[in-house]
Design brief:
12 strands; alpha+beta; disordered N terminus; six-stranded mixed beta sheet; 2 domains
Length: about 350
């Protein structure tokens, strides 16, 4: 995602710049993952948008890469506000074995260690500046894979993040978040360097870069690239962290913007906001409505165990299609002008014969 930033700069930082990480003879080390060269960063993230992401015109095969670049380019003003979007942060743990080998696994993250002194989200929105409430963590908030775990952070009530600028802050080290067996979560080598907030073009700070690149000139070039990332965090993340703990203790931070709302036909299946009827509500395997869709149509919400309190949901789940006589509904986020709904702006087609599409309106 961030190919415009020099990969060499991050490689140098990862290999050589970790002067502030404590050194212990630990059998395991856990970190918050931050590797822009492989797009392993918390999301959503300003670093995934212009001017950090490459323009779509520069993308190359595979086509999915180009599609991703074009999608991110469309978020120039920030991430969309019409979806309930979770903040995701990856964590990884390296275990050092007696035979000298290592393995990377998903750490057993202690969600109870995420307290107001180690984790918070702040924002500047139309309502002002301040901390943003988030949904309480449950066991489902942290999902473990073979070599990493992913923590999902939701806005309180699982509603979209309001328009504004956000900073997500997680404290690391002895006073920060930990694993269940007490292993502190530290910043990755790259983020540890960034968290110091130093000017990487200052001659006092480029010694390690110069040693790796072989020249002062090249070290200054790579330092300038790193400064771009550091400047992003200096704007909001570092000042916000400093209100509770020194920003140098950050295990990870992310900033992102949510763009202003534009009038749209609401499509957010996670909140039951979709045009009706719509096949997105159907299970692709069975053809019947999904449990969430059936429960929502029954006027209820799924319980924590995935069941629906309303007995009407069972009836909706028995349907293998939609009524041919019911209305077609398309809820919009704002009122629209009725006069703009014309034969040209609203069209309906019968696709039962794909080779003979018939316009019905």
């Amino acid at each position: 995602m961030i190919r415009s930033l020099s990969i060499a700069a991050f490689a140098v930082a990862a290999a050589a710049c970790q002067p502030d990480l404590p050194h212990t003879e630990a059998s395991s080390v856990a970190i918050a993952v931050f590797d822009p060269t492989t797009a392993k960063i918390p999301l959503p993230n300003d670093l995934a948008l212009a001017p950090f992401s490459p323009p779509s015109a520069a993308c190359t095969p595979p086509e999915t890469t180009c599609a991703q670049a074009e999608l991110l380019a469309s978020f120039a003003g920030g991430f969309p506000s019409d979806q309930e979007l979770a903040i995701t942060i990856d964590f990884a743990q390296t275990n050092f074995k007696a035979d000298g080998t290592t393995e990377q696994v998903a750490p057993d993250l202690d969600l109870a260690s995420f307290t107001p002194s180690t984790f918070f989200v702040v924002a500047t929105t139309n309502a002002g500046q301040g901390e943003v409430p988030t949904e309480a963590f449950t066991a489902a908030s942290y999902v473990k894979s073979a070599d990493h775990g992913t923590l999902s952070i939701h806005h309180a009530g699982r509603t979209p993040w309001p328009t504004g600028a956000y900073a997500v802050l997680v404290r690391g080290g002895p006073n920060g978040v930990k694993t269940k067996d007490g292993i502190p979560i530290y910043a990755s080598q790259v983020f540890s360097l960034i968290a110091q907030g130093l000017d990487m073009t200052d001659p006092k700070n480029i010694g390690l870069l110069r040693a790796q690149t072989g020249s002062t000139a090249e070290a200054l070039v790579q330092g300038a690239q790193l400064n771009i990332v550091i400047s992003v965090y200096k704007q909001q993340a570092f000042p916000a962290a400093d209100t509770r703990f020194p920003h140098q203790e950050l295990a990870i931070a992310a900033t992102f913007r949510i763009a202003g709302t534009v009038t749209n036909v609401e499509i957010d299946p996670a909140r039951g906001l979709v045009p009706l009827p719509i096949d997105l509500l159907r299970d692709a395997g069975t053809g019947t409505l999904t449990p969430l869709a059936a429960c929502t149509l029954a006027g209820s919400s799924l319980a924590a165990d995935g069941s629906c309190p309303s007995p009407l949901a069972a009836g909706f789940r028995a349907l293998d299609g939609f009524s041919t006589t019911g209305m077609i509904l398309a809820p919009t986020s704002e009122l629209i002008q009725a006069a703009t709904v014309t034969d040209d702006s609203l069209q309906l087609f019968d696709l039962s014969l794909p080779l003979r599409q018939v316009r019905l309106r």
